């Protein structure tokens, strides 16, 4: 059971955490892998192997170009860029475990994720459905956003035991 309390705090702090609906379509697919270590842990292959494998699968079922965006790291081409710029004409985002999926759904872009991803409840998993991604309704999306907010904690909340008490109530 979720409450709007933590979600309302995020909104009041100016954090973009409101579902705005879904865009109708877009010009390209945005591929956003997790870090090399997480990709290897989740998929058992390198990040580059995952990128090639997924791009090939997408090209078999979709005519849209596949654009690549890696995690911003100091010195790489994505450092000091805003992922929201990459969502402007994006049809869907595909990731294994990157939290870019959360940014995508908040910014009207449907997502394809691994089944263990925090977005798995609201995402497509089957890449053959790339042309018609899952787009849950407002009620489902708002419940999901509030559930995510209810399970995110500051270091201070973890250290003080507040996080533990909140999670204990969910059992």
Strand order of the largest sheet: 2-1-3-4
Please give the number of β-strands. 4
Sequence of secondary-structure elements: HEHHEHEHEHHH
Binned, the helix content reads 40-55%
> How many helices does DSSP assign?
8
* Class computed from helices, strands and strand pairing: alpha/beta
Structure description:
The chain has 171 residues and is an alpha/beta fold. The protein is globular and about 50 Å long. It has eight helices and four strands. The model has no long low-confidence stretch (mean pLDDT 92).
Tags for this model:
171 residues, alpha/beta, 4-stranded parallel beta sheet, 8 helices, 4 strands, 8% strand, globular
Concise description?
This protein is an alpha/beta fold. The protein contains 8 helices and 4 strands; from the N terminus they run αβααβαβαβααα.
List the helices and strands and how they pair.
Elements: H1 5-12, E1 28-31, H2 36-43, H3 47-61, E2 66-68, H4 83-86, E3 90-94, H5 100-106, E4 111-112, H6 138-150, H7 155-160, H8 162-169
Parallel strand pairs: 1-2, 1-3, 3-4
Helix pairs in contact: 1-6
